[in-house]
Write a structure and sequence with these properties.
By secondary structure, the chain is mainly α. It has a two-stranded antiparallel ribbon with strand order 1-2. The relative contact order is 0.15.
Length: 239
């Protein structure tokens, strides 16, 4: 089970309201180093605060990257540009140690290029409409918002860029006329507000699976130390 601590959270300057809410839930008045499971943060503050708290345990970067990939794949069917698909694939390989940082950066840049190409084609209006419609779907909301949040807090851009490009890619063929900037911005704001207010059951379920089934780094190190000690005693005895 992946855990953080209150002291780690405090070091990253949490918002006042969320910090107080968490302390109240735990029945505490100050930070400490007691292991704090991410499942408890979800229970207390919700999935968005739990995603933010991922930045407090960078040693689990692999898990956060793979979670972001999972989120991006939930909207992969909206992506029509192969560069967006490839960004997700490279991001997954990087998390698994099968791609380099240079390959990840190249995939990120390609996803950005895909987004810019669609924007030049005047697809912003349709993209905003697509984003607004997606915001009405809990599954798409969960995937898009989680991809953005997880990618941001894991300091990983590729899946985030792919998810952003997906909305534009999905609308590129349907876009005939671009709406005014004001209308576009209004649609984006409406979609974002709807996504932020939505409940994310799929996202929450997958995140809880990740944080509960993954052994924490401290436990892995402790087990490794115990195994090394046991091998030493078997080879050299207790003397």
């Amino acid at each position: 089970m992946i855990c953080t601590t209150l002291n780690r959270i405090r070091e990253h300057d949490p918002c006042v309201e969320g910090w107080r809410k968490l302390l109240q839930h735990l029945g505490k008045t100050e930070a400490d180093d007691e292991p704090l499971p991410f499942s408890v943060i979800v229970e207390s503050n919700g999935i968005k605060d739990a995603l933010w708290a991922c930045c407090t345990v960078p040693e689990h970067d692999r898990e956060w990257r793979l979670f972001a990939v999972w989120c991006a794949r939930q909207v992969q069917h909206l992506m029509t540009d192969q560069r967006s698909h490839e960004a997700i694939n490279v991001a997954e390989r990087f998390a698994l140690g099968a791609a380099t940082k240079n390959e990840l950066a190249a995939a990120r840049d390609a996803a950005f290029a895909a987004e810019r190409d669609v924007a030049r084609d005047g697809a912003w209006s349709a993209a905003c409409d697509a984003a607004f419609d997606a915001a009405k779907s809990a599954a798409c909301d969960a995937a898009c918002d989680a991809a953005l949040a997880a990618a941001r807090y894991a300091e990983w851009d590729a899946a985030c860029n792919a998810a952003l490009a997906a909305a534009c890619d999905a609308a590129s063929d349907a876009a005939c006329n671009a709406a005014s900037d004001a209308a576009c911005n209004a649609a984006i704001d409406a979609a974002w507000d709807a996504a932020c207010d939505a409940d994310f059951p799929a996202q929450k379920a997958e995140f809880l699976r990740v944080v509960t089934e993954t052994e924490c780094c401290e436990a892995i190190r402790a087990r490794g130390k115990s195994e090394r000690r046991e091998r030493f005693y078997k080879e050299f005895g207790n003397d």
